[in-house]
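Lab meeting minutes (informal)
Scribe: AK
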Amino acid sequence: MIAMNHRQTPWKSRGLLLVGLLLVSGCGRESLDGTYGRRRGSPGAASVNGTAVLSEMFRQAGFQVVSRRFLSPRIDDFQVIVWAPDAFQAPDDDARRFLEDWLFREPGRTLVYIGRDYDAQIAYWEAVLDTAPADQRVEVLRRLAQVRAAHAARRARMPDGETSAWFTMFRDARSDPNDAWDWSGTWTQDNGLQVSKLRPEIAGRLEPPPSDETGGVDRYRSEVLLHGPPGILAYRLVPTRQTASQILVMTNGSFLLNLPLLEEEHRRLAGRLIADCGAPGRVVFFESGPEGAFVFQQEPGSRHPTGLEAFTIWPLGGILWHFLALGVLYLFTRLAIFGRPRQLPPEPTSDFGRHVHALGDLLAATGQADHARRQLAQFAGDSGGERHDAAGGETVITPSARVTGGRV
């Protein structure tokens, strides 16, 4: 059985609200940070689409929170994985198998999967438009149109009706503006959660995978946690191989990202999600970009690669091969001769100044200051010492007969 924790965690709402306002303000930056699914870094932590507020709620509930950018055996010691991928497609087979192996390995583990079909930048500019002065409405409308167009272009690649191991994806929600917002599901039985005040945005749908109709054994047993007029907002998958672990699937992040968590009822709903993750332990926020999840192809418990073995591990091997190619190219630029070799022109022998410099170098090489003074004094006496430039009215000192301290 799944270990359930139905107590409502008393959140420090004012503190979280202040954190959220700081995130939305962008710390004084002119542009709005829309980086998706990250809790740390710049950009990312101050993003309206980030997970910094949700991770802080986990921390206040007693969890130890860290972030990872790739899947590797290093996350095997964690109890909870929170994944908000920045991709509209379902996870690929490598990432899904890795996470299922982690989920089945020990009881009491929870994977929280947050669908991508939401962009808080749109909600932000819509809220700004309602209170914007007349002279700024045109600029706000321009930015709102930009983020809507960018979101629609990426959302067009979202599969419609495609079934994977964890859900079936539908591009359009079943909603009618005239429908009453009546909610059902396990989470509605929590008296501390006022679901009638929830207004999440559901554009597409993630629904539990259909039952196996071939007579085989289903891989997961599903339980609807929150269902409304547009469709299912949250459900639970319990694997038949490990009934004490679970996957909590959220259709989107319209109540879990930084900007939506400014709403009190969204924080209550996020608190219920955290309570369903079990007793406080270690939680990792897995952050993947539009290119998908990076998975180290290394079996748990195996030793780390050493020497040339590192070139065979993906993606570490690909990175090392690039560095090796850059190193070879650098050596070629430093050591190789490009083009046909040519003879440099000889140095001129008619420059009298070069003879003077050569004589000085020879005198310095002797290391005998008295001998050098005698030679300079003799040369100055033969050349007449000082002479007066009548044209310029300046006194020009030739190699002087007076030598002081070894200096001319």
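Next up, CB showed the second protein from the same session:
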Amino acid sequence: MKASPSRHRFIARPQAAALLLCALFGMAGAASAKEAEPAAKPQPPRSAAEILAQSPASDWQALDLENTLQMDLPQGPVVITLATRFAPRHSANIRALVRGGYFDGLAILRVQDGFVTQWGDPNGSAAERARPLPAEASAKLPAEFSAALAGLPFTPLKETDGWAPVNGYVDAFPVGADPKTGRAWLAHCYGMVGAGRGNEADSSTGSSLYAVIGHAPRALDLNITTVGRVLKGIEHLSSLPRGGANMGFYDKPAQGLGIQRVRMLADMPEAERPALELLRPDSATFAALQDARRNRTGWSVYNPGRIELCTGLPPTRAADATRRSP
């Protein structure tokens, strides 16, 4: 006797139910096994040194040879890059002074502890004995205390301070800015270079220069034309004997260290030219570096979670020794 279709359907249902239960138990078992797997350990944060060592070459930029100079002192070379976006007239005048040999044989005039090292003509205040400016250099320049913020390749810093509504970096330089006025200016951080002036705001020519060798004197911002930054050799300026009680000026001209010569890098033989490059402030490496500086690990016991404009400057490195491919 043939089994009825209904009987076959009745027998098939428990088989399907068994298959479904097996599938469900299999899925549950797989899920349990997956949950039982140990979670991957979080990677420790990279140090600043590791971030720089692993950075691609594309995050670095070569020096502007036409706007970087080398001042040779008995202790060693001092390399200074000029801030052409902020002080174009002073930068052009300094180039003319350098190429005219103006600084060669002049001297360090002043070393004030915790403040600045200044150099120029020891006889600059005596018109009859002062060294004449080269014909290509100007004896009168406008003050260049600030520049238009619009159009600058400005990389903002999230931290603010009392010296500027906004802080950040342009090229190799620390910058304060005020979006309300649309102005930006160079900050007096350690290693920054300014043009000495008299009482008149427009009395600087770049013939007398100083470098900050102490805590950032930010009260000078917007009061003096800042013309550049020391990229290499700041130790040769900061370790000099301190001057006298008159703001660090040397009492006797013989105390001042002689400047051997000053050259623009573009005019130097390639074999003598310093091979340096700067970290681009708009790069991913710089952003990672700033985070590492904010969140210090290892030796640090207390983590402040912040940085200052002057402690976050884009670093310089030797190009040949550490260049890496992207």
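CB comment: The domain at 48-322 is CATH 2.40.100.10 (Cyclophilin).
No objections, moving on.
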